[in-house]
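One-letter codes give the sequence; backbone shape is given numerically. An example follows:

. . .
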Amino acid sequence: MNTQQRNLYQIGITSLKLGCIGFGGIAGMVSLIESELVSKKQWITREHYLDVVGAANIIPGPNSVEIVMHCAKEKGGRAGLIVGGILYILPAMLVCLFYAYLYTKFGHLPTVEPFLYGIRPATTAIIVAAVLRLSKGLFKQIEFIVISLLVLIGALCGLNEVALLFGAGIAGTLYLNRNKLMSVFPLTLLFIDNSSAKLFFLFFKIGAILYGSGYVLFAYMDDALVQHNHWLTKQQLTDAISVGQITPGPILSSATFAGYLVGGIWGGILSTIAIFLPSFFISLFLYRLLNFINQHILLRSFLNIVNAASIALIAAVAIQMVSQFFKEWQSDVILILSLLVVLFTRINTVWLIILGSCAGYFLLML
């Protein structure tokens, strides 16, 4: 086995693992990826990773998928990007297809709450640790600290995260470069429709223009699947989004569930390919985008501020998640123990997720 083959094997195994344990929303997945690919395997530096996270936040598509694919490309080239992207998405697709089969057969979703109970505080501990690691050395200027605190407050108040990122980036760049002109580069949105492949191009369009959280995905899918084409009911769409939230990996896997309800197993596979396909094209050019940004002072300043704002958003998610765990003693115990373990040991994140899940199940049985 040559070096390239070994790299592709490592990329495949690692991406598959991340796809199996990717709980906690985008903040949890960004934290898990940082723990696995930056701190443990050192595929890229922490500074490079921050740039990737910041850039992924200001381009369309699922952030975690684009981040994994970029890191995989750094490790194994374009072949690594493809292998990493496919195997990161695969677990969520298979789980959603299984859920969709049970849903159509029995009319309701399987009960997995007891096993998810302990995963949430364990994932929260991983997010907190990632915030501490990523913030090291980033806040060297008082302006960065002020902007990050404002973004944190805005996120806790429920303001849109995309608006906060762009607002912080533009305002901070203008302030730090008051005597320079700022260049604005428009994003090209792709709108395609084809009656012979309507399902495919509908999800391809969503994948190409999607910004923000699962709530934005719900709005897009509601307009396309419920309001316009009447393929799903509102309840079915709600269940699809719920499956995306309880399934490891990106929430865009909700498309797999919805596609299955519309067109069976091939509808689910086709919808999955369509919604993630734009990310493969976008990730191919992410490296060039970062190089271009690094060559321009204003864009570099903009991305630095977006990096700080991105950490503030992750911190806001961590605060919101921690605040939910002061109601039941079982989740408090798991959260505290998980924090101690993740901060003072080098435990593999897979074991922490598994131990958290088992602890949650057994504590609920007490």
User: Anything to note?
Assistant: Residues 181-196 have pLDDT under 50 and may be disordered.
